[in-house]
């Protein structure tokens, strides 16, 4: 009789343990199901029913293959493990089919047991897939814009090129593969200018300055030189200080300017020669004497002055008289430097009715005779508004990529930290519970950890939905 009583007590404990196991499975937010080694459902929880839209009774009459996208099964069929096989655990992705016919992506954690059972935990990863697709689309948009741009585009990290577009490589006679991974100044900058360029790169990467705009002498692959103009700003990509910018080949423009300088004394005496040179360019040019009286200007300069200063030729030809009062102190400082023999280059913007400013790159350089006596100066202004817009769009594209990358990183961090903590606690508590299944304190701890895990998963799903951006 005593042995019979002990056996009945053992059966009662086993029944209670199975009931607790069933409650844990049923309350799980992840879809959990059991299969035999033939692929038949032998048990499913409520989350699995909700995930697929079937009732428990319907699923227990089905095979797992009935719930997977048939197109995926054609190229990636199920592989059933023999009963004699040892325990295994696999994590992979599958496409499930809802009862309504809609396909969706899930991540499945498959654990096989030798006793003809396979336990699977499935999680809907539709939101994560959408975020990954957004990231790929953002990168594709940037690549499409950059690769087809007529402006050279580059990215520098750790002092080396990590991206250049075809136009950038073409200007220097290289392929993109030849320049990627190289130090910029080593291959494409004239030796006399490398120290200045290296210092500019160092200052931006270290955070001393945010952006620069400068002209320098380039070095082509065939050994010839060209003039290039760089615009570059400091950004953080993958938490790494980087430089993203654009490059223009200004060789032809420099030749025109050199021609003006070469002819400077004769140009002062010959209006016809001056008009021939400066009216064949889209840059606004004006020739001034040391008193800043306008000696000559091209048509582009007249349109520039009329638009930005409301200039009227009949009102006089002194440049200072045309400069707005709020800009006069800085402009006077620049003039003093030029008349002292130093060329000046800067950017300036003027408001437009459409809300986007008109940007100009202004250059002023002195004109001197053979005795280095300053005779006057040349004022040149080039409309760079389109270039500025391109920079803004380029910066926005990278900010979007960074946003998606940070969202995915944040999700991954939470998965590896916030979920792992309650799971680790649950593992430890289950081991304790094996020693004393009736321990109410341990059961209360398990319940609390399950509540915490469920809250974390719900919060992550809501956060992921809120962060997803569809472009």
UniProtKB/TrEMBL annotation:
InterPro entries reported in the protein's UniProt record: HisK_dim/P_sf, PAC, PAS, PAS-assoc_C, PAS-like_dom_sf, PAS_fold, Sensor_kinase/Photoreceptor
Known catalytic reactions: ATP + protein L-histidine = ADP + protein N-phospho-L-histidine
GO molecular function, one term: phosphorelay sensor kinase activity
Keywords: Coiled coil, Kinase, Phosphoprotein, Transferase
SMART domains: PAC (SM00086), PAS (SM00091)
SUPFAM superfamilies cross-referenced by the UniProt entry: Homodimeric domain of signal transducing histidine kinase, PYP-like sensor domain (PAS domain)
Alphabetized CDD domains for the sequence: PAS (cd00130)
Matches recorded under PROSITE patterns: PAC, PAS
Domain PAS: 17-71, 159-208
Coiled coil: 4-31
Top-level taxonomic group: Bacteria
A Pfam match: PAS_9
E.C. number(s) listed in UniProt: 2.7.13.3
Residues that span the membrane, as ranges: none
GO biological process, one term: regulation of DNA-templated transcription
Domain PAC: 212-262, 344-396
Protein name (database record): histidine kinase
Organism: Mucilaginibacter gilvus
